[in-house]
Sequence to fold (171 residues):
Amino acid sequence: MVTKNTHPDIAEDVLQEGCYYLAQLGLPDEKIAAHFETDPATVSRLITAYKAKLESGEVAAGDFDKVFWEDVRKEADGDMKLTFVSDKGFHHSWKSELERLDGRALMSIYEASKDFVNMDQNQKFLDFPPPKGYDPLALDREVKKAVVVIEQLLGEKWKAERKRIGENPPP
Fold:
């Protein structure tokens, strides 16, 4: 089945695969349509086209594809992948995974990441937009972004703990 590609900059095959896997992950056609800026009928046609390719053997379902689209879904739902520093080196994690850590672990990650950013002689350039193409400060920018998110998570944990023990958190 041939469908009209509403995104000329995105390959039709990618749209079909994305719609198929996002539907497999439980997203309704309406939500998929909103993410791909199209209508639910087009999403349905794209899913059907990809299913036909799977059945004919033109494409094969793979774990890598499923994991990739799971990550896309997490990002679309507002979760974000963060790069941070600990005493053991650099790490990548989803924000939702960091939310599950206790305050002590989060504080350790926050301090190590903040120390990393503060020790960089080039940190003054982090406030400027990255250059086109290669960004030599990409890692620093990612860690700086994580510091802000972890600081917010620590604030939420602090408020929750104060509420739990009956103190009124500051406004």
Summary: The longest strand covers residues 81-86. The radius of gyration is 21 Å.
